[in-house]
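BUG: 3D viewer hangs when loading the predicted structure for this chain

Environment: internal workstation, default settings.
Expected: structure renders.
Actual: progress bar stalls at 90%.

Input used:
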Amino acid sequence: MNNTVLKTIEQTTLQRKLLLLDGNAHAPIPAKPMANHMLSEASLPEIRMIACLIAAQRWEDDTHSPDIFTDTADWFAARILVLNIQRIEIAPHDFKTIKTAILRAQAFAAQHKRPFRQPEIRIILHAKDKSICPIWVENNGQ
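Structure tokens produced before the viewer hung:
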């Protein structure tokens, strides 16, 4: 990442959110309102839609669709695009998946002539909960 991009990220006011990775689960949305700093992926159907569209680009018309259509990188790519994630914290074992997700998100954005800014990746060694992903998004006054 070049210095211009880093300066742009540093000058932008980012807000830390905890993303509950529940979009690909068959669990109900929590009845209690979540804390202001938390987002439930299940309440954002756009993420599922974009993940499926990204996965569909790899599908060949002459074959049957697989039992599992999307993979983890598709979901991360969709999260990056829909939420406009600027920074993400991941465990070391997720690094390759995130790099793949960024490439897919970038390609999808380019194909649909949408702006794309690669998120900064921070490696965390001791993730407490694998169902929650710390992210930073632009502060839009919420």
